[in-house]
Amino acid sequence: MGVRSLISLVFLIFGFFEFDVVYSYTRPPPGKTIFTPQSDDDSSPEQVHIYQVGQDKMGISWITQSSTPSTVQYGLTPSGNNTASGLTNSYRYLLYKSGEIHNAVIGPLKSNTVYYYRLGNSPKGYSFKTAPSQFPIKFAVSGDLGQTEWTQLTLDHINKSNYDMLLLPGDLSYADHLQHRWDSFGRLVEPLASQRPWMVTQGNHEVEKIPLLHREPFTAYNARWKMPYEDSGSDSNLYYSFDVAGVHVIMLGSYTDFDSESEQYKWLEGDLKKVNRKNTPWLVVLVHAPWYNSNTAHQDEKESVKMKDSMEDLLYQARIDVIFEGHVHAYERFTRVYKDKEDKCGPIYINIGDGGNKEGLATEYIDPKPEISLFREANFGHGTLEMFNATHALWNWHKNDNDEAVVSDSVWLTNLSLETSCKV
């Protein structure tokens, strides 16, 4: 029996109970999935992506199908002679064994600067640009990417946006237990992810736990997309925070423990206490399962309802500026909200789970539209968040329309620290 047949049989027996997923709508037909093939050279680096580490370092991850050194040669020119060594690991999942997964951290690096690099023994050259150390900074934001023709269109549009860093609120590859799909996804996003830092958190499609056969969740995600969680005092790759150019970004984990006794809750509580709004005036949070959502999809799931009940007070009291959510395959922007009501001191919630997944769009919304929901549309696309200074930022949602990135929703954001009545 092949891996695909084995997985299908397991889920026929056990069902999808581990996710508590509620589908209250009929999805449109699936989009056409694309597969990005492997190079003929087993020693050639592939699936290259970079991620920010601290204020002045960059993590680089890549995979080879044969054993090669985990070394990086880098500098301000293609012949740069700075070197760094990293670590190599691999993992098994049922009958699948991954290639050699390399991770190395390079630096210190100058901000807002182009660096050139080569990996292992390969002569192939890459380059990336570090993020700025001060305003302005431009984020691309896209969730539930997958690897379909819709995904490719979204990536093409993001690539043209001149972004400094990408933020992804979960559901990356939609491999769904088929590990070669993780490889295909890594190759698909490499042209972008090898040039700008991608900071991600996990979604339900990253869990990949199979009763009896593979009990450990997040095996592929944790091995392939290691984030700098240790730098923020986190004990888990599923939640962490980092600072960049006056912005404190918090990545939360919807699919690990989040009650008031959990390690994640205690970490978040401590992380928020360390925030200095003079150094990082903007506070941004990403989470996969949405706390606010007027789409008929994914209503009343425990990862949304119970996590909101547990953590909403923490984020409200910290005066978070904006919270990006995924999971729902459509776009929606809320006003500033707290406890289900408009509140000028609450965060703006934006659902951006419309990157291009294989399951299609969530086209049905609750009617009438709640007053707290300001804009909603079922379309694939991405967003850009541009912080111009410590007080004002511009959010644009670009929908994929006629092969062009059309700005369909746009709003100026004012930093909550300016609202004197919201001082804590």
From TrEMBL:
Residues 1-24 form the signal peptide. It is an enzyme of class 3 (hydrolase). Keywords: Glycoprotein, Hydrolase, Signal, Zinc. Residues 346-405 form the Purple acid phosphatase C-terminal domain. Residues 138-331 form the Calcineurin-like phosphoesterase domain. Residues 45-130 form the Purple acid phosphatase N-terminal domain. One of its GO terms (molecular function) is acid phosphatase activity. Its cofactor is Zn(2+); Fe cation. The keyword Protease does not apply. Its EC number is 3.1.3.2. Belongs to the metallophosphoesterase superfamily. Purple acid phosphatase family. This is Purple acid phosphatase.
